[in-house]
From TrEMBL:
Name of the molecule in the record: 7-carboxy-7-deazaguanine synthase
Residues that coordinate or bind S-adenosyl-L-methionine: 44-46, 97, 146-148
Binding residues for [4Fe-4S] cluster: 38, 42, 45
SUPFAM superfamilies listed in its UniProt record: Radical SAM enzymes
Key words of the record: 4Fe-4S, Iron, Iron-sulfur, Lyase, Magnesium, Metal-binding, Queuosine biosynthesis, S-adenosyl-L-methionine
Residue ranges of domain Radical SAM core in the record: 25-232
Amino acid sequence: MTLTLATTNPGEPEIFASLQGEGPSLGRPSTFVRLSRCNLACEWCDTAYTWRFTGDNRPHRDDLAFERRQNQVPMEEAELAARIAALVPDRLVVTGGEPLLQGAAVARMLAALDAIRPGMHVEVETNSTVAPHPALDARVDQYNVSPKLAHSGNPAALALLPERLAAWAAEPRAFFKFVVAEPADLAEVMALQETYAIPGGRLFLMPEGRSSDALRERSRWLADFCSQHGLRFTDRLHIHLWGDTRGT
């Protein structure tokens, strides 16, 4: 059975060792696997090559369309497990796209990984709208949950599902990460925190940006807001180190 991965170059699956650039594990050596496909369409998405294929007219600020066959590659679950096991970091980050769309296959891949290299720490990044497959949920150590605010361009009826947000807020393994572009976005974050009783210690605010200059400009006022409201701030370390590039 196979998983559908994103690519760094046509035919080359996006599997790489790097430092986690965001959230509670920022700076930790990690192996990344980027899966393809997403059920949402953020206008500022920096991995639009995982979902905005030719013929998809959902809005994106770059207005680029990607050829599916150049930007998706299938890989056998066992082969992917072997590729992960061969890399140095003992922390795996499954990202996307929306990884939970392939939850059952990810669970089978992790079972194969455990047979080769048991005990790796597993993080799954998600947009919050998809429930984890039970077999996968049993193996995940940490969820990095990034609900999409109104400025993402996604309708709230698709992006902010009350039953899912409540479930993530009640899940101690789940850390929330909100992408913030403007000060006006902060009222929406605070309303969601209050509605779902999200602990400040599990709520990160992250500036939106695909360049160091954009991140620094937004970080100044966003960091002040976090310190004033008992929330956590996260930068985008990989952007500062390598820029907006695949495989980093």
